[in-house]
Design goal:
The protein is mainly beta and about 300 residues long. It contains 2 helices and 20 strands. The strands form 2 sheets. Strands 1, 2, 3, 4, 5, 6, 12, 17, 18 and 19 form a 10-stranded antiparallel beta sheet that branches. Strand 9 (about 120-130) and strand 10 form a beta hairpin. The chain starts with 5 loop residues before the first strand and ends with a helix.
């Protein structure tokens, strides 16, 4: 029997400690996938040379967790529920973004499939309002694999209105977020890179992304005494729109968000589903259009 190219290992016997994806031949840790009672997320995500490019959470945003799925706000009838944040705001107790916080249920460990094409984690989750009443069902697939010059993580989230019509209201917070490793940030010497109009645009988030459509968004740096490294993000799917160039919400402090509901609400009728997906690529050495195309083309 041929040994698989990949394997998974746990830090502890308890599945809530997370699973790590390992490249069998080299022992390299590609990524970690896990959950707690509030959410599931990916952390770390390592380049081929072993450099992590995402942050598990920030001091002032503890609900920005690696690569994660969230949504604020979801409406069912008159019930508004916030699935972006995961707990009370310790800074401003009156902040409205921390009101009506929903809850996710993770009753079991994810299903894990290992093939020569990578490792896929599948979570089936009920999204509940603040009163613990179910609002929708989610199936999430996280697929991790290695290519010659990068580590790739795809996150697919499919939400179904299983308990009646719901609306994902237009707002600033939504769909799939990535918290970037601090060494890659412009205030600390990094750059934001955007693929736009067939060119690479480099600078700050406001300069190169702003409200522009982008084929991809990356953060890149050469930390002192180390080689260049970066993380690149591209939209794979949005069943509510044919556009794959946004909407993006990107901040120099390290937040990258593919927010499908930034400008428009997405309503679902009973049993209707909405799927979106984001690809995140950890890489060494500077990005180029040719490299990005090899990672991002289907």
């Amino acid at each position: 029997m041929n040994e698989s190219r990949y394997e998974t290992r746990q830090a502890l016997v308890d599945h809530t400690a997370g699973h790590y994806v390992i490249e069998s031949a080299t022992g390299r840790i590609l990524a970690g996938v896990g959950h707690n009672p509030h959410r599931a997320w990916t952390f770390p995500l390592n380049t081929p040379n072993g450099h992590n490019v995402i942050q598990e959470h920030a001091f002032d945003h503890p609900f920005h967790n690696g690569i994660f799925v969230g949504q604020g706000y979801v409406m069912r009838g008159n019930q508004e529920t916030n699935f972006w944040c995961t707990g009370p705001d310790f800074r401003k107790t009156h902040n409205p973004v921390f009101l009506h916080i929903g809850q996710l249920r993770y009753p079991t460990a994810p299903d894990i499939e290992i093939t020569d094409d990578g490792v896929t984690f599948t979570y089936k989750t009920t999204w509940c309002d603040e009163n613990h009443d179910p609002m929708l069902e989610e199936v999430r697939r996280v697929h991790v694999w290695a290519c010659d010059d990068a580590t790739i993580c795809d996150t697919y989230t499919t939400k179904t209105a299983a308990y009646g019509p719901v609306t994902f209201a237009a707002n600033k917070y939504g769909s799939i977020g990535v918290r970037i490793q601090p060494q890659l940030l412009p205030p600390l010497g990094g750059q934001v890179v955007a693929g736009r109009d067939g060119e690479l645009k480099r600078g700050t988030a406001g300069d190169v992304v702003g409200n522009f459509p982008c084929d991809f968004v990356a953060f890149e740096a050469q930390p002192h005494g180390r080689e260049p490294m970066g993380v690149c993000m591209a939209i794979l799917d949005n069943s509510a729109s044919s556009d794959r160039s946004g909407p993006w919400l990107v901040r120099d402090y390290g937040m990258v968000m593919f927010n499908a509901t930034l400008n428009d609400s997405i309503p679902l009728e009973q049993d209707q589903a909405w799927q979106c997906a984001l690809r995140v690529v950890a890489y060494d050495q500077p990005i180029s259009l040719k490299r990005s195309q090899s990672w991002l083309m289907p």
